[in-house]
Amino acid sequence: MKQHVTRWLPAVAKTAYAKTTTVAQNRRAALTVAGVAALGGLAFAPTAVAAPVTSGPHAGAVAAIDLATGKKTATESAKSGLTTGSDKVPTRADRPARDKLMPHGVEGAQSRIPLDDAQLDNAKAIVKAAKETGVGERGAVIGVATSLQESKLYNLGHLGTYNDHDSEGLFQQRPSSGWGSSEQITDPDYASKAFFGALKNVGGWQELPLTSAAQTVQVSAYPYAYAQWEEQAADIVQQLW
After folding, report:
1. DSSP 8-state code for residue 8
2. Is-contact 101 7, C-beta < 8 A?
3. Where are the alpha helices (DSSP H) in 85-227?
4. From CA 134, how far away is CA 50, in angstroms rounded?
5. Which of 153, 160, 178 is CA-nearest to residue 169?
6. Among residues 27, 55, 24, which one has the least CA distance to residue 190?
7. Among the listed residues 129, 149, 121, 148, the one whose alpha carbon sits nearest the alpha carbon of residue 200
8. Spatial contact of 31 and 24, defined as CB atoms under 8 Å apart
9. What is each CA distance from 51 to 118, 180, 207, in whole angstroms?
10. DSSP secondary structure, 62-122, as one string
11. Gyration radius from the chain CA atoms
12. What distance in Å separates the CA atoms of residue 174 and residue 185, rounded to the nearest whole number?
């Protein structure tokens, strides 16, 4: 079950970022990058089998800081404004309470990354799908955190030799495992609703810690990696809801 896969850090070519090349003018266009590091621990088919819960630390909580922008290293901490895109998203007085977003608190060390416009648009698509599928604010947090781990909120197309099998999109779902066609899973709306549809099939998902709920859907070789994004995901959902 992909135990051989290493959780690599995604890295968009720094030269392209330095030139502020526009990434994904169309939200539905998948980001395909030549010469990037592959993403590991990718999604398998939807499942409703309960994931094991342990109190151990998740893997790579510190090392998983995204180097895609070339602006941060694994030892630097991102500022809140850059991390959540708060300079682009107006806050609202009726935003969700933190206890609804993170009812179990956070598990272990937390990672943060700055967001560009493409990532923010994809986060909006996930939050919109959460509303439309009825999973609510908590479901949205699980969805955003899962995408932060799987693709760093980039809608990734096929990465050639760096790809893990046929995994693509925000959640690195696989056509061969029943998630849909390549075109479908690189549509942020479809991919998000497919993820939330699988999440709703997990009995008692609302009461599970985030990493367990996400792992039950994704079946990753690194089940604790999702936990590190809970705080940032909550910040994003709180601003976008």
Report:
1. P
2. no
3. 98-101, 117-133, 136-151, 182-185, 188-200, 210-218
4. 21
5. 153
6. 27
7. 129
8. yes
9. 31, 23, 13
10. TTT---TTSS--TT----HHHHHTTTTS---TTPPPHHHH-TT---S--------HHHHHH
11. 16
12. 8
Q: How many helices (H) and strands (E) does the chain have?
A: 9, 0
DSSP letters for 145-186:
HHHHHHHTT--B---GGGS-TT-BTTTTB-GGGTS--HHHHT
Please give the average pLDDT of every successive group of 10 residues along the chain, which has 241 residues: 33 32 45 43 38 33 35 40 46 78 91 96 98 98 97 87 78 92 96 97 95 93 91 97 94
**Residue 114, CA atoms < 13 Å, CB-side half-sphere:** 19
Query: Strand, helix or coil at 31?
Result: strand
Taking alpha carbons only, the member of 49, 225, 228, 201 closest to residue 139 is 201
Q: Let me know: does 169 contact 151? Beta carbons within 8 Å.
A: yes
Tokens 């499942």 locate to 47
Which residue(s) pair with 173 in the sheet?
A: 168
- List residues bridging with 168 in a β-sheet: 173
State the CB neighbour count (10 A cutoff) for residue 4.
7
Q: Indicate the SS3 state at residue 3.
A: coil
> pTM for the full model?
0.67
Q: What are phi and psi of 173, to 5 degrees?
A: -85, 160
